[in-house]
Amino acid sequence: MAYFEYFPVIGYDVRGEKSSKRVQSITNVLVRTRKKLNVLNAALFEQYFITDADRADILAHKYYGDSTLHWVILYANYMNNPYYDWPLPYFDLHKFVAKKYDNINAAHHWVDSDGYEVDETESGATAITNFVHEETLNDAKRAINIIRPEYISQILKEFKKLTI
Questions:
Q1: Which position among 32, 39, 85, 126 has the lowest Cβ density within 10 Å, counted as fewest Cβ atoms?
Q2: How many angstroms separate the CA atoms of 3 and 1, rounded?
Q3: Distance between CA atoms of 47 and 145, rounded to whole angstroms?
Q4: DSSP-assigned letter for residue 39
Q5: Residues 144, 77: contact at Cβ < 8 Å?
Q6: Nearest-angstrom CA–CA distance, 26 and 8
Q7: Cβ of 1: how many Cβ atoms within 10 Å?
Q8: Which alpha helices (H) appear in 21-151, and where do they start and end?
Q9: Are 148 and 126 in contact (CB under 8 A)?
Q10: How confident is the model at residue 29 (pLDDT cuts 50, 70, 90)?
């Protein structure tokens, strides 16, 4: 099931000219269901660690047998933007960091032995480079929840009700 399949259809003037109206049926992509669909029970989820080879559509095919359900994986993890919310593969991360920073090996911040951010003058402070900082942020995105396959039909029914 494609993400927008159950969204309502509305009439919309595609020309935008007062003298020659032409109304077409389009999908209302502005319907919001994020706060309405409430999946909180941990038993509904399976923990998964994203590798560099993983994509949402591949995981959807692996777990649900349907790659068009990729949006369910993103939705269950509150990922609104698949380009920035999904972890980057190492090669792409390296390119991203090189573009963002003049020197990827420069100190981004310093931490103490307990991992707390401190001033560089603190005794025993260790420098965290720009690359290591961005890699840590990227790796934090790798642990996700996948809705168990036996519950997917219920989730889709609830989603359909919310978008009508």
A1: 32
A2: 6
A3: 5
A4: -
A5: yes
A6: 9
A7: 15
A8: 56-64, 70-76, 90-100, 130-139
A9: no
A10: low
